[in-house]
Write a structure and sequence with these properties.
This protein is an alpha/beta fold. The chain has 9 helices and 4 strands.
């Protein structure tokens, strides 16, 4: 939150904003504003992991529109040829910025991956347990040295691409229908059904999380902005 608000205490000193955050301590090699940038970065990191024998797996997250970028074919081909320990996760939420995927994409995305011979799965991206199971399988495959894995999660975004997005491209009734499949709602029902928690416990948990988020925001807003002198000293040093 400090980084998103441009504070000096942010993980990148308040200079990365929302699109270029890097936090190597936690394995985040970068967030990328360039469509497909995550695929290229993860492929390079996977190559480094393989050559160093670390046993680590590099993971790239991207949207369905990225399948039409050159990065997609080039990097997946490279990763497959070298059997790199990488997992490519396509979060297919049906729409690019304002464009339905079917209007600009020929065929099925997993078919492109299958043509390269990659291990791949498609899971219900609105189901937490389904995503977790698919992710565990993909990571295990890549870590075992079998080569890269591709995981497509069929999901949906409830809000616009930006604050000014009117959402006029959505089909009538689609948003209401998908809201009934909110992952939080589905998982809440599952926990109650299996006796792992009751309504009161889950309500209390939600309240604690909301309070924690408020605390984080309040702390971040009170943090100082970077100073010009500090920036100059860092670059000079």
């Amino acid at each position: 939150m400090d980084e998103l608000l441009g504070r000096a205490s942010g993980v990148c000193g308040g200079r990365a904003g929302s699109m270029n955050v890097v936090d190597l301590e936690h394995g985040l090699i970068g967030c990328f504003g360039i469509v497909g940038g995550s695929i290229a970065a993860a492929t390079g990191v996977a190559l480094a992991f393989q050559r160093r024998g670390t046993g680590h797996v590099a993971v790239a997250f991207f949207g369905e529109g990225t399948s039409n970028q050159a990065y997609f074919a080039e990097c997946l081909n490279f990763a497959q040829v070298l059997r790199l320990p990488a997992v490519f996760v396509c979060e297919n939420n049906r729409y690019m910025e304002f464009t339905p995927i079917e209007d600009v994409t020929a065929g099925d995305i997993p078919a492109r991956v299958e043509a390269l011979g990659l291990w791949n799965r498609t899971v219900d991206g609105m189901d937490v347990q389904a995503v977790r199971a698919g992710a565990e399988e993909a990571v295990a495959y890549a870590r075992a040295g079998e080569g890269p894995a591709f995981l497509q999660t069929l999901t949906y975004r409830f809000v616009g691409h930006s604050r000014s997005d009117p959402g006029a491209y959505r089909k009538a009734g689609e948003l209401d229908e998908m809201r009934r499949r909110d992952p939080l709602t589905i998982e809440r029902g599952r926990l109650i059904e299996h006796g792992l928690a009751d309504e009161a416990e889950l309500d209390a948990l939600a309240d604690r999380v909301a309070r924690r988020v408020d605390e984080v925001v309040e702390r971040a807003l009170a943090a100082p902005f970077p100073t010009a002198d500090a920036e100059l000293r860092e670059y000079a040093g």
